[in-house]
Amino acid sequence: MTTLVDTFVEQARSITIEVAAKRLDLTFRKSGHEHPQPCPACHGKDCFAFNTKKNKWNCRAGGVGGQDAIGMAAHVHGLDVKSREGFLEACAIVTGEDIPEGGERESDEDRAARLARLDQLRRDKDQAAARTAQAQADFRERERRKARGIYEAAEPIAMHGIARRYLAGRGCGIPAKWLRATADQPYWYGGDDRGQLQTLHSGPAMIAPFIDATVLVIGCHITWIDLGRAPKFRPDLSDPATGELLPTKKMRGTKKGGLIPLAGDLSARRWVGGEGIENGLAFGGWEGFRDDTFYFAAGDLGNLSGPAEASSRFAHPTLTKLDRNGVERPVMVAGPVPKLDQDADDAMFVLDHVDELVLLADGDSERVMTASAMARARARHARPGRLIPIIWPRDGHDFASMAVSAEAEAS
């Protein structure tokens, strides 16, 4: 014989994750099926999510989830679904109805204890998050100070012959306002038995600042130079233990929300730049460093375009890789749609007065991934009335290599 309680439970089981999420006052994103957010129970940052298409939910911090709205409600409210009263209380939450007569109910004392546990858990998480945030902020500020010190200790590039010859060899004009250089910049790498970084190399380097929208130096970009190693004139550095080649460009401090200024003034209404200092300087030299233009570089494509919306990810048309089971699958590419609800400093800033933003692509990077990132950058920085053309060099080149080729053909 079906009782009122049985009917009540069956009704609760029929509730979808979407309906339950609305009754639980969870956060829905503006579009898409996946809705990540801080956990309303434990306050873990971005560890909770529900999917209205798959009818699933999960909390990574708690290691729980499923396709059951009752379980989701129990998790959010700290109820134990293994107990009859906890299970029925969760059913009441998702249905929005009282537990029928004959059904077990949570006592006032148990309810008060549960709410107190939830409140304490939230306070503990908030305090832990505050301590972590402060530690991260202190670390970032120390790194910013170190980066600022490196930049300020360097001399103007106009006074540094090696750096000028490096830029000339890369086909770049040499604006003197922002870039600096040093004759002996240490390259820190690896560590000793105590974890202390070691000096793998030391030599001439070009130093560029990362600045925020207030023109405060928040980081620096270091390019080590070796004029004897054409065509890019950078030293050959490798891991002493493995022989793995190491990058000859590094960033200190933070690039988050910042950009690298190259020439001109931020008050200009036309901005030109893309990934790579040399790329921007070569293009600026080609057009004569226009007086009405501010030239810049991004630290990398992520700094230029910001993160992508997960739903815009797509399969590369030709590139593949083996998955963990040895099956060949397409490489997935970060899509052209900017991530929703991201922070303003997830990519470089562009000031509001800019009405033309010329984005420079890199033709010697992987074409599909670069094109997607450039489209994402244009979408992210779009404003009513703002022109955002994307300019590509010849396939297989960047603007710096094109400038070098043009000089060789002219000589």
Order of strands in the sheet with most strands: 5-6-7-8-9
Shape: elongated
Report helical residue fraction.
Answer: 25-40%
Secondary-structure element series: HHEEEEHHHEHEEEEEEHEHEEEHEH
Number of strands: 16
Number of helices: 10
Computed Rg: 28 Å
Strand content: 15-25%
CA-CA gap between termini = 97 Å
* Largest beta-sheet details: 5 strands, antiparallel
Low-confidence stretches: none
| Mean pLDDT across all amino acids | 91
Specify the structural class. Answer: alpha+beta
How many domain units?
Answer: 2
Quick recap:
Helices cover 33% and strands 22% of the residues.
Structure overview:
With 411 residues, this protein is of the alpha+beta class. The protein has two domains: 4-106, Zinc finger, CHC2-typedomain (DNA Primase, Chain A, Alpha-Beta Complex); 156-410, no CATH class. The protein contains ten helices and 16 strands. The chain has helices at residues 4-13, 17-23, 69-77, 84-95, 108-153, 161-169, 277-286, 301-305, 367-381, 399-410; strands at 34-37, 48-51, 56-59, 64-66, 155-156, 180-189, 198-211, 217-224, 249-253, 260-263, 270-275, 293-298, 314-322, 328-333, 356-360, 390-391. Strands 5-6-7-8-9 form a five-stranded antiparallel β-sheet. The protein has a five-stranded mixed β-sheet with strand order 10-12-11-15-16, with helices on both faces. Helix 1 (4-13) crosses helix 4 and helix 3 (69-77) crosses helix 4. It is elongated. The model has no long low-confidence stretch (mean pLDDT 91).
